[in-house]
Write a structure and sequence with these properties.
Rossmann fold, two-stranded antiparallel ribbon, 2 domains, 11 helices, globular, 342 residues
């Protein structure tokens, strides 16, 4: 009797298990629909890579993009910093976004990474880069039903400017490690961060800057341990994607726009300021700052209060690249914001 009663119970368990599975959405990991891994292109597969032709005042050029994942309602376009770095330091997102089912798009801005590198430096212009982002958005069919824009550092400047001109296309905005005022950024570097340096080291740095001798190897020898290692990325060894991205820096673009160093700003962006316009950005916006950032975390918290739908995330143990040196806090905060505004 035990054997006869056991078989139906087993069969019933199998049937129930099968029924339960068939009624559940097919998932690879928790939160990730199986469709996330479906191809996004027809014909020959390129791993999501798409070269996008953009119009500029100097003719047509191509910029490189790569889609990772497939989610019709959560798409994050990543704007790298520098200016002049590449998408590559964002590769850490691959360890977090896929399991949440968040599609994200790598993008090398014009004159960066795998995109075209025109020699005409008049194209190194903030308004033109904003127009470029809009052309990329159209080509990738991003809109207010799915489009989150994440800009880090210089990418944060670009993201704020884009939102001020085209926010009707945005679902959400993430301003990562960037203040809304270059003069205030410079003031913070001079009045707060500089005073944390060894006075003798600071004097040597200032002397080199006064002479305009930025090619002097001593300049970066002083900045790397005394500034970059404390305020750019606070890890004993920088991760390979970061080194790879920095190794491909377009130095001409960087110097023209930012100036020769992250220690303050002296290029074309030196007077950039949209602090009074933040109240015009009506879409949900997350501002990310870090305790040891090159940017003033208190100012970035203030930004979040100026934004009508602003939130602030402080990475307490992080610096300018807190997606690495306070990674869990950064990623969980960004993911929570995206899901909350989904």
């Amino acid at each position: 009797m035990k054997k006869l009663s056991f078989l139906p119970i087993c069969l019933l368990a199998v049937v129930l298990a099968f029924s339960s599975c068939s009624n559940q959405p097919n998932t690879i990991e928790q939160g990730t629909p199986s469709s996330y891994f479906d191809p996004t292109e027809q014909g020959i597969q390129t791993g999501g890579v798409k070269m996008i032709a953009i119009e500029t005042p100097k003719g047509k050029f191509n910029v490189w993009t790569k889609r990772f994942g497939n989610n019709p309602t959560k798409k994050v376009l990543l704007l790298n910093g520098g200016p002049g770095l590449t998408h590559e330091y964002f590769e850490c997102f691959e360890g977090f976004f896929p399991k949440e089912g968040i599609e994200f798009i790598y993008y090398d801005q014009l004159a960066c990474g795998s995109s075209d590198h025109p020699k005409d430096t008049s194209l190194y212009d903030l308004a033109r880069y904003v127009d470029e982002v809009e052309q990329v958005r159209k080509a990738l069919q991003l809109d207010k039903t799915n489009f989150y824009l994440l800009g880090h550092s210089w990418g944060g400047i670009l993201a704020m400017e884009y939102a001020l001109k085209h926010q009707e296309h945005l679902k959400g905005l993430i301003i990562s490690n960037m203040m809304a005022s270059a003069p205030e950024y410079g003031k913070y570097a001079d009045e707060v961060l500089a005073k944390q340096m060894n006075p003798a080291v600071l004097d040597s740095i200032r002397m080199i800057e006064a002479k305009g001798d930025f090619a002097n190897p001593k300049y970066m020898e002083l900045l790397l341990p005394n500034y970059y290692a404390k305020h750019i990325l606070r890890l004993p060894e920088w991760p390979e994607p970061v080194n790879r991205s920095f190794g491909k820096l377009n130095n001409d673009l960087y110097v023209i726009m930012q100036g020769p160093s992250e220690f303050g700003i002296s290029g074309k962006l030196a007077k950039w300021d949209v602090s009074k316009d933040l109240k015009k950005i009506a879409v949900p916006t997350l501002v990310v700052g870090a305790t040891h950032d090159t940017m003033d975390p208190k100012y970035m918290e203030w930004m979040s209060k100026e934004l009508p739908k602003g939130e602030f995330l402080l990475c307490e143990n992080g610096s300018h690249m807190c997606m690495y040196d306070d990674q869990q806090r950064y990623m969980s905060g960004v993911i929570k914001f995206i899901n909350a505004n989904h």
